[in-house]
Amino acid sequence: MNAGCLVLACSFLVGASVESKPSQPIKPPCTPGFSQNFYTVILSRDLLHGQRILKVKFEDCQRGREVGFVTNDPNFGVRHDGMVYAVQDVSNLSEPVQFMVTAKGLHEPRVWETTVKLALAGHPHPLALSKAGITEMLSRVWDSQPKVIKFSRKHQRGSAANGLRRQKRDWVIPPINVPENSRGPFPHLLVRIRSDQDKDVGIRYSITGAGADQPPSGIYNIDPISGNMFVTQPLDREDRASFHLRAHAVDMNGNQVENPIDLYIYVIDMNDNRPEFQNQVYNGSVAEGSKPGSSVMQVTATDSDDSTTANGMVRYRILSQTPHSPIPNMFTINSETGDIVTVAAGLDREKVSQYTIIVQATDMEGNLNFGLSNTATALISINDINDNPPELTVRTFSGEVPENKVNVVVTNLTVVDRDQPHSPNWNAVYRIVSGDPTGHFTIRTNPITNEGMLTVVKPVDFEMNRAFMLTVVVSNQAHLASGIQSSLQSTAGVTISVQDVNEPPVFPVNPKVIRFEEGVPAGTTLTVFAAQDPDHFIHQIVRYSKLSDPANWLKINRTNGQITTMALLDRESIFVKNNVYEATFLAFDNGSPPASGTGTLQIYLIDVNDNAPVLIPREAQVCDRARPNSRINITAADADADPNVGPFVFELPSFPASVRRNWTISRLNGDYAQLKLRISYLEASVYEIPVIVSDSGNPPLSNRSTIRVKVCPCDDNGDCSATGAVAAAGLGTGAIIAILISIIILLSMVLLFVVWMKRREKERQAKPLLIDPEDDVRDNILKYDEEGGGEEDQDYDLSQLQQPESLDHIINKPAGVRRVDERPAIAESQYPVRSSLPHPGDIGDFINDGLRAADNDPTAPPYDSLLVFDYEGTGSTAGSVSSLNSISSGDQDYDYLNDWGPRFKKLADLYGGGDDD
């Protein structure tokens, strides 16, 4: 085998060939057989006995048939799974080897065949991939094609009884290899197709399939007379790697002369594609301090060339590393897989947090002379581990805090940590290990600055502790990495000074509970409710005052806090809740500034028998005849508490004697008794029955209560009838008749009054007006339904609408003009008082008397259309337009009315001394 053949053999397909896509969208039915009719494999010269070569794939269309494989070459064998292997060493092979693999069903006589072609690789003098070398290689590929392909012999037809009998082919037609990217010239002759019968009859040749008469059509054609088959254009393996055509031979009449033969055309790959990285930038990470060999990341590049040849075999290498610290080659890469791993120790995030690596991928198995290359960037981040313990900046901190204050930051503890900020390896956790046994302080971590805020959570007392000495330890939220020791700088002391402040007086017992019987007299000393000043180192005076005393029963001594009573303590008061009366007091000192504290005094009042029982109910109803249900159940209510309440004792008094004669009382239990008739019949009426009720106090208290009992006739159901209810109300027959007569008289008086009012209205309308209608100034007055207090309505003072209870403010009012709506201060005329029930004959006299009184009334207006209203208003700042109660002495001069025009002529005549009408 020469050098050119070696290069060509290295470009053969390994394994399954690529079939063209079907032109129809519908998938053809499955046909049992080998997945390929032809296999081509490149072998290494060091292939030993028993080593695997390739695996042929058999498709049984999921029928589960058992198939056995055999070869027709004793140098090669095939296992039951289709794996082809070498029976002996093949290093002595000098030419390609071709043999057939046959598949035969174990339970059926049917057989299937495929062809395997093997070639050796690794010639010691490879052809340089120069322009001349490529041209020579392509020419050898063209020259290596079979010159003539003949149709196989036609099947011979036997007797009808024997049926058809298949004959074995003479040879297997090898595939046709065509290099991609060929420069021609085109069309280029590939093979010649001929039939053995072309000497006897005229033959016409044709080819069908994808690439010929099917898309992509026109790539291959054939001379129908000579049978020469041509390729018409350059091929691209990455676009289509193989073609499957069929050659046909027919006579001049179009009749088939030969069975069609299958032509397999394989496009030989050339190295025309660079490796392409899936990403231009890869991001990976590795923990600092990782050991050599630790995995970091993987980069991947793909090559569109044939991956079974050197054209598509990619290899990786690292071109550069930035920075070079601590050494330039901290990482290495697996040349075949692209896995990047660490080479040396010494990764330290605090020194270098990220590395930038340039990775190169080269095909042709990494041959830099022949292969094509591409590059990508790998960014490797160094993950932080907790290899730096936190260190406090100083060994001693100090601060001060006022006493009795909480949530106050005493001091901030500063710390330094070189690990990654705001991570568990950096976050500080502070602990107080000594100096605070009672838990007055805690340390919270500032999430932004990582400082420790020493805070008071429990009030401190200057009188108890003037200073604190704390020991503080700081650590990380995450544990230190293995092998890292804690630093001595993680411990510090904190000195805290307590500031004295003026504290309010404190009542030792608060609230203070005392017990007293109710009813103690005023001036009784109950207790001493004194407070203590916590400021022992400062002499201050404490004074007391009362803050809350709802019933005003108590007072407190300002100096010593002694509590005494000012009134009787009553347990039954509304200010006592659950027998307890509560009052609060204030204690304050004379400090600067003064401070005060409150104390609560609770007086538990012990009940005494100071309330007599009261009968319940106070009214009842029974039938006038003794019946089983004519009974009244009675009880008593007592404001006292046990044991000064029930059981109660009920009894009837001996006076008057009719009570015990008509009624009897019997005890049902300790709280209830029953009152019922002693006699069989009692006249219907209302009876007031006295009952004496006594409680169980020591001594007992008694009360004579009266129960009002209505005795009435009852129906069969024991209910009072309507007539009986009226009779029981205490009204006799005479009284009822008197009521009816009174109602009739009242109705008659109302009717007569209405008739008189109508007649009066007619007479008033018939009487001529005192003023000429033409001169009547009142015809322009519009009457509205509104009443008010004059100018004072502007202030909306509703008190002007109320009648004053006293006339002193009017009598003492300074002289001047007053309003007519004021009540006159002079003695008013006395109108005749109408009796409550006048006789109808006196109505006329009553009216005449009232008319005479109105005519002689000096306070009435000069016309008889007076409307009398209730008194409203207290006066107007404008004064009155009336001439009454004038401050001027003598007669009033009304001559100015003559100047007001004709409309006021009549008024001027009336008041100005004119003639009376």
UniProtKB/TrEMBL annotation:
Alphabetical list of Pfam families matching this protein: CADH_Y-type_LIR (PF01049), Cadherin (PF00028), Cadherin_pro (PF08758)
Repeat in keyword set: yes
GO biological process: adherens junction organization; calcium-dependent cell-cell adhesion via plasma membrane cell adhesion molecules; cell migration involved in gastrulation; cell morphogenesis; cell-cell adhesion mediated by cadherin; cell-cell junction assembly; convergent extension involved in gastrulation; ectoderm development
InterPro entries: Cadherin, Cadherin-like_dom, Cadherin-like_sf, Cadherin_CS, Cadherin_pro_dom, Cadherin_Y-type_LIR, Catenin-bd_sf
Sequence ranges assigned to domain Cadherin in this UniProt record: 170-277, 278-392, 393-507, 508-615, 614-721
Transmembrane regions listed in the UniProt entry: 735-757
Localization, UniProt: Cell junction, Adherens junction; Cell membrane
Domain of life: Eukaryota
Any one GO cellular component localisation term in the record: catenin complex
Gene3D superfamilies: Cadherins, TCF3-CBD (Catenin binding domain)
Chief location bin: other
Topology of this chain in the membrane: Single-pass type I membrane protein
Molecular function GO terms recorded: beta-catenin binding; cadherin binding; calcium ion binding
Entry annotated with the keyword Amino-acid biosynthesis: no
Family matches, as SMART domains: CA (SM00112), Cadherin_pro (SM01055)
Keyword terms, alphabetized: Calcium, Cell adhesion, Cell junction, Cell membrane, Glycoprotein, Membrane, Metal-binding, Repeat, Signal, Transmembrane, Transmembrane helix
Role, per record: Cadherins are calcium-dependent cell adhesion proteins.
Identification of the protein by name: Cadherin-4
Source lineage: Eukaryota, Metazoa, Chordata, Craniata, Vertebrata
